[in-house]
Amino acid sequence: MPRFKTILVTGGAGYIGSHCVVDLLNAGHDVIAIDNFANAVGDEEGSPALKRAEQITGKNIVFYEADLLNKPQINDIFDKHPIDCVIHFAALKAVGESMQQPLLYYQNNLLGMLNLLEIMRSHECYQMVFSSSCTVYGEPEYLPITETHPTGSITNVYGRTKYFIEEMLKDLSAADEKWNIISLRYFNPVGAHPSGLIGEDPTKEFTNLMPFMAQVALGKKPVLTVFGNDYNTPDGTGIRDYIHVMDLASGHVAALNFLGSNQVRLKVYNLGTGRGVSVKELVEVFERVTKTKIPLKYVDRRLGDITAMWADASLAKEELGWSTKLTIEEMCKYKTGCGIIKPFNITQ
């Protein structure tokens, strides 16, 4: 049995959270999930994604519709359950939206984390895996990016909230040796669970590239809008490190296992493939895998975006025993639609 039996997953009904819950259950953990449905689909019965996670694993999830800004509500959950460790996903996450509504992002992401840390401390729960982001690096000084790359020169508000939280965790872990925290700096998650039951189901117009592409392929949108084709890259479009969401989920289980046998105070790891793929390249792979055509519309660069970014994830391989296994082609196999992910078939 894992050392940490009961895991609280904040933002558990979301895209990355729901995939991580599946891996946690399969690894033998009990999961308490909370979500306020800011980024996830909810209904009168709770979370459709988590119901499907139960279907995939054959195991039960305790779920609360709850908001980290409501401190008494979160405190009650800790009073009811013997939580061993927290995986903290819950955050507003759209770069474009963050540039338009900075106060909303600072309030939700920073205050939510402050409340969570105070409640954890009051319940003597000092173990955490934090969902951070490669955006903390800003415009890269070198590629691939290692964990020692400078942080702080960030181009968007979303990234600044992740950076400020990392600084908060740095101060906290320095002040009190009981804290044991791993911060995982994600690169660009895409794809879906191979069952086709869960995946990315955006609730906002500010959405990620892959579900937007799927909507175009299905005729729900006329063209894929590409922000900028004048970057200093081989084809003019931005380059990112796309990582399959199931590889990302397995990184969290690896981080939990490491925390279970090591007192690190605070440790940072990149989670990425180590390969940069341009927007245009990703579209071409998607077209080939799904046998569809994606019309493109190029518009001006989006405020807050950078030119190119990909990871050096060798530290996670060396210390966590983790590396990616799934390919770009496998990331393109599934589509979003009607609140459910299905194997991609344009006739559906």
UniProtKB/TrEMBL annotation:
The keyword Isomerase applies. Its EC number is 5.1.3.2. InterPro entries: NAD(P)-bd_dom (IPR016040), NAD(P)-bd_dom_sf (IPR036291), UDP_G4E (IPR005886). GO terms for cellular component: cytosol. Catalyzes two distinct but analogous reactions: the reversible epimerization of UDP-glucose to UDP-galactose and the reversible epimerization of UDP-N-acetylglucosamine to UDP-N-acetylgalactosamine. The reaction with UDP-Gal plays a critical role in the Leloir pathway of galactose catabolism in which galactose is converted to the glycolytic intermediate glucose 6-phosphate. It contributes to the catabolism of dietary galactose and enables the endogenous biosynthesis of both UDP-Gal and UDP-GalNAc when exogenous sources are limited. It comes from the Eukaryota. Belongs to the NAD(P)-dependent epimerase/dehydratase family. Residues 8-333 form the NAD(P)-binding domain. It catalyses: UDP-N-acetyl-alpha-D-glucosamine = UDP-N-acetyl-alpha-D-galactosamine; UDP-alpha-D-glucose = UDP-alpha-D-galactose. It comes from Chrysodeixis includens. Homodimer. CDD domains: UDP_G4E_1_SDR_e. One of its GO terms (biological process) is galactose catabolic process via UDP-galactose, Leloir pathway. Keywords: Carbohydrate metabolism, Galactose metabolism, Isomerase, NAD. One of its GO terms (molecular function) is UDP-N-acetylglucosamine 4-epimerase activity. This is UDP-glucose 4-epimerase.
